[in-house]
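Lab meeting, action items carried over

1. Structure of the two-component assembly. Owner: GW. Status: complete.
Input record:
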Amino acid sequence: MNMKGIARNIMILISAVIILAAGLVGTVAYFITLPPPAGPVAMITGVIKDSATNVTISGATVAADGYVATSGPDGNYSLAVPLGTYTLAITAAGYQTYSTTVSATDAQTYTANALITKTPLPTPTFVTENKLVYEAGATFQWLDPHVSYYQYDYWILWHSVETLMWYNKSSATDLIPWLASSWTMVNETTYDFALRQGITFQDGTPFNATAVWFSLNRLFVMDGTSGTGVRGSQAAWMVQQLVDPDGDYFTALGADPSYDEDWVKSVLDLNFVEIIDNYTIRLNLATPTSQLLVILAGTWAGIVSPTETITKDYAYHAWNFAAEQQPQYNLTKYLVHMAGVGDTYFNLPETGWKFGTGAYYVESVDTSTYKIVLKAYNNYWGGPGNMNLPPTGKTRIATIEYIYTASFATRLLNLRQGASTAIAVSETDIYSVVDRDTWLDQGILQSIIAGVTVHGVVPTLNTWWIDFNTNVTNVDGSYKSWQPFSDWRIRMAVACAVNMTHMNIYVNNRLSILANNIVPPGTFPEGSYNPSITPTFSFNLTRTRELLEDAYANPLNSTDYDMYFYNGTEIPAGVVDNRFGTAYPKVVEIYVQSGANTFQQVLTTLTDNLNLITRSITGTRSGLEFRVVIVPGGQQYTLASRHQIDGYMGGWIADYNHVLNWLMPMYYSRGTYPSWNLWNVTGLDDLYDQAVAADEEGNFTRLVEISNQMNTIANELVMYMVWWHDTEYFTRSSWLKGWYVNPVYGVDLWSAMYYEQP
Amino acid sequence: MKLYEYIIRRLILLVFVLLAVSVLIFYLTRGFERGFAPWAPYINEKMTAEQIEEVIKAHGFDRPLHEQYFYWFRDVFNGEWGLTGTWGLGLPANRVFFNRFPRTVELAVFATILTISIGIPLGIISAVKNNKLPDHISRIIALAGYSTPSYWFGFLLQLVFFYYFSLWGLPNLPSSGAPSIATRITGLPILDGLLTGNLGFVWNEFVHLILPSISLSFISLGFLARIVRASMLEVLRQDYITMARSKGLRERVVIYRHALKNALIPAVTLTGIFFASLLGGAMITEYVFSWPGVGQAALLAVGQGDSNFILLYSLVFATIIVLANLAVDVAYAFLDPRIKY
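Predicted assembly:
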């Protein structure tokens, strides 16, 4: 026999051995789990529960000398055994083995319940190092509180920079004085704030009235300029609107500032912050508003140390510190430098900062790995009643690391291994961390990873919808003759064409609250969120067909109907011609951002439903076709702002928690944003003006009433096909205790948390 | 033509290649307003229509395309490559690129070292033990290497060497990321760590490099092994090898001194191109391992349609590829005296 023959025979032999071994293992396994005995039997039954939580445990194995049973969904098991005495061994994944002896000497049922205890988890490194590691697939943008306008940045800032007002722990509407100790309304445009004493910034500078004056004026003179120099595009407008309702000073409000010394002086002359004494300031508003306190509670109104700010910014910009700032700091000279400048050291503080009063200071920022390290500030005052610290006797987490890990699979592995404390999990990955059935059936986020808790869900202050453009223009700015969404029938047909309840459960994994109107839960003042104002549409394909048939048979046009441009002038005859069908093939494009997978799926179902109907109506594929167009977010915003697209997936995240921040952008034709879809409803404009008046009077009942009226009108018009309000959930190590979140922040606050064995 | 003349001619050609590449990429990234708006990375959802127009104007995106190109060209000559989008924190594109490039160089060097040190011996063994067990094993490794998706293999490495090793109580490797650079001298993190005596950093950087390097080299070492095997088999059949053997030389001397040098020519080409392509950044591997190189950056930039960064990235990459080809051609001249230019 040659070598090849030997090798072949060896291979055959190895295969035979493997097959035999597998058979042997199977046989042994079969006989170990003995079948019920033929003679007299006893039944051993019981329920298996968690000793700490008393929750029943399914899938636990009960073994008694070769007889094996498994606990069912209710934790019950049942085991038939020959008469005798048995030692039951109960095992379940993640639990310690539980043993008990049962004397089953008669042919009857014996009960052996078991409370089993979880196997203590090994202590992760982050606990021994008292460090919190958070991993996300997103990155920060700019960390200067007076520049940033981005949720992820706010998360870092909430831990580091504090404001005069803040929220009472988890309440979205209970505003409390924070760096202020109290406030009083002197008259409807004047508020006095007493400041807390004995607080020092992380750099050692005392917190006082000068710091407040400096910080809020710094926000003003930088004028919402972004880190890349786009003026008026960031968050500053929120505070600016309090002093500049006519838009005379600040870019976002309509002015074109010169950003020179005179302009800075004129801004300072607005006298928004008036120093009464070292620990008292007065805020002078241009018009009365109830929005003041919520606006002051935003990170943009963060109070920073003048010393640290000036020192670092002078060094960063290589300005002549010695000549200008010695022997005494000259705050105004610094502000003149900063006029209209959004490029500050604090946007990307690679060697850290200590300019806040908050629980943590920034130790380092790595612009290539996107890693941010925060360190506990030892002299932190703790917030009112030490609210922002762990309970007495518990140790605050010393270090927080924000890490960018692009791949979710890697993040999940890091969480499982104990390399990270917390990770971001997108809604499409949710079932990698929670049990699907428990969530969908019972609404409980039950973690499927040992040692991990999934907190939530928490509603957030945002809403998503399809935005219907009523004045679509061509690329050259001319008015399009095909204006599908200026026809109520087509808007309504689209809105009735998809089952949103079904979509929220099976596409969106039930991770949102279906929206009835634009205003989300938790909006200030109480009552603004009113789910009883329901849409006039609901899933009904018959209605969609009827509406489209009518629109097909009697197309809207500006010859036979009175139609108006956005500016209120009448559209001439012959301009709008909404005929569609074989002879007039038309397309309706609905834009959606790339990466918004859930939205894309829902829109695809929506357009599929619509196209099936339009094909049967027009008898052709191209008679009227609805299309989903996927583009980068920035591109969608641009095209929407130029009114070049028929419809798009729109969304709004509240800038600050006040109903006016919803009514203005959504319904007010003279406001900043509705110019995107060019709705111009006189009735809504009038109501908005009344809402502002009610707010100025502090008449919240009236404000809520008007908000309700506006939402009702919008629903009747089908201005938007409102979809849902987002919720948040948080995948965290179970070692992390004292967990809390506030819907306004949309993120959890780690300064009050600590580690403890779960 | 002398070798140096050849090199000069190729370098002059490089200028034209880069010009052509820049025109092509410029048109592809900025030429389609509705398909792929170049200003998208600078816009956020809270901007008003006026602010959006201001951004477009500030970046010159409202000008005709040919004008935009010449403005871009002028700025590039002044060292201004434009700003990145939010992914790059709004920093200048060249700063982002050259901050990250050393990390990609490190990864490329390590992966290439691994590829050469495993791929070439594997190829030699395959050739010498042609159609025997070592050849079969080598073939399986090679086949597995180039047929395994890199993101999957990367994840597998993380699962075994990070997750299971730590579960089994064994020393494990980090799954992802890279340590923050303490001091910058040359820009190459490991070299800077050595120069500053920061051995802790050097070790940390090194252990973070191991898994991505293995992941990258696994794809190419298979190719390399098969190329070396094929050319070795061809060389081993040459008369001068038979001659060498008939002289009574030891097999080791025949293979390593006489056969290998000639068999290595195609391997040099492959390694050169492979190294050059790695310098362009291994997008998927850098994504899986969160390695902060230019590949990861390019992926982020493409996701946002960031034309400034893509232009810079493409031009540098084109330069590298052209130079690598040139280096390979020059290397031929040294490896094979018969080759003249």
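2. GW to write a short summary for the group page. Key points so far: The radius of gyration of chain A is 32 Å. Residues 130-404 of chain A form a domain with the D-Maltodextrin-Binding Protein; domain 2 fold (CATH 3.40.190.10).
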